[in-house]
Amino acid sequence: MIQRGFWPDGAFDPGGVLDVLTRDRVHRVLWFTVWTAGLSTILAVVLGVPTAFVLHRLRFPGQRLLRTLIVVPFVLPTVVVGVAFRQLIATSGPLGGLGLDGTPAAIVAALVFFNVSVVVRTVGAFWEGIDRRTEEAAATLGASPARVFLTVTLPALAPAVASAASVVFLFCSTSFGIVLTLGGLRYANVETEIYLLTTQELDLTSAAALSVLQIVVVTGLLVALHRARRTAPPLARAGESGRSPRLRDLPLVGWTVVVVALLMTPLLSLLVSSLRTDGGWSLANYRALQGTGADNALLDTATHALQRSFEVAVQAAGLALVLGTIVAFLVSRRPRSAGVRRLSATFDGVFMLPLGVSAVTLGFGFLITLNRPPLDLRTSSLLVPIAQAMVALPLVVRTVAPVLSSIDPRQREAAASLGAGPARVLLAVDLPHAWRALAAAAGFAFAVSLGEFGATSFLARDDTPTMPVVIYQLISHPGSANFGMATAAAVVLAAATGAVMLVVERLRVGSVGAF
């Protein structure tokens, strides 16, 4: 991409990149990306912080169910979220009277819906670890609950809130499926602009320039976030499991119930819409998935696309698990040399790049790189699994590496002193500690690959699409029959992804907010 942007004709020419960045449309795209991501981040924090208190500092019946419901939106494929909001705010939808269809407000609402759980999980996990004795001491000295929160709790929570806000801003500014399905050609962020420049205008130089700009900005944000986490003070565990709600907590409990209801409304509306045909209840939209839609909107059936999505996800998850485990093993070692430690940290950061580089940029990079010998994979069925594996790779590393780092090295030394070789040490010491993390990582990778849309939209052929691509193809064709099929396909994909993530959640390894 750097070569396409700065060496378009074989000679170094940065003027082409500067020309792209001075265009009025690019300025509008950049501003739309910044303000929608910023507003979505603020709203997600406002909704998420009180909810984090209720779900992580209080204890009451049904709390675990609410925690699960909160995390559901984050694990959904973005194209499913886009379809859910599109049918919710459409003229014939439940909220059609609000006039939100085709407006930036719909995009912001969908971004908030997708990212509230990041705030709840990140801030909530941090909140659980704050020593409550400092709060109790302030209360004993006469401070009101509001003053205790403002002078004691909030300063302690600041690193977690900043971390959550940074991650949410990152996810919102690199959102592709939501903006594409709700904004269409009228509203574009950097992600969708790269996609349109590549697929509609065939302007690879401009697309490369935007991709390079995005890589620089997002990577800088990740570096700042990493340094902020390293300098954050350690938590002091109080050892309490939480308390029962008090009378003064009822407004916050009610707030949490409202937040959960708002998060569930688009999903329930999507399910109801998929079961309605011609004003009555029917499974016709689901039966239609065996066909190609009205006016042959698809070149292959949705059922075949779902089967293909499972096959690709298995391949991508397997590749990501193998590569990610190797990387996690290497970066979890504890070398004595400072130089080797810095090299290990750099190595770790390199393999985190797919987290900072959007899936659209990643797919675009594969498209213009693996298109000539000796790596001409344009027509290979392996191209999509490879791209999806790279998208899932950081999640695997971040799930497995902390577990491997927590193993006492003296256990490995003891096994080695008793004559165990390196392979035997791995099987006898590392594997018993890490098998749950490995299973969770495989589930994460499978779920991410199953719903991946950004990179796949560049690389999948029309005659061999995955399920997310089929959903977008259906909503891109006019007609209620095609949109009905899209809602049914979105429900099926959401159910499959959600089932996998529920299994991962039961393993109780990692956190979606940890990235």
From TrEMBL:
Domain ABC transmembrane type-1 span(s) in chain numbering: 30-223, 306-504
Keyword Transport: yes
Keywords, in A-Z order: Cell inner membrane, Cell membrane, Membrane, Transmembrane, Transmembrane helix, Transport
Compartments, as annotated in UniProt: Cell inner membrane; Cell membrane
Keyword Transport: yes
Transmembrane segment boundaries: 29-53, 65-85, 105-127, 148-171, 204-225, 252-272, 312-331, 351-370, 382-404, 437-460, 480-504
Example GO BP: transmembrane transport
GO cellular component: plasma membrane
Top-rank lineage group of the source organism: Bacteria
Pfam families per record: BPD_transp_1
Coiled coil segments of this chain: none
UniProt membrane topology term: Multi-pass membrane protein
Record-linked InterPro entries: MetI-like, MetI-like_sf
Family membership: Belongs to the binding-protein-dependent transport system permease family.
PANTHER family: INNER MEMBRANE ABC TRANSPORTER PERMEASE PROTEIN YDCV
Protein name listed in UniProt: Iron ABC transporter permease
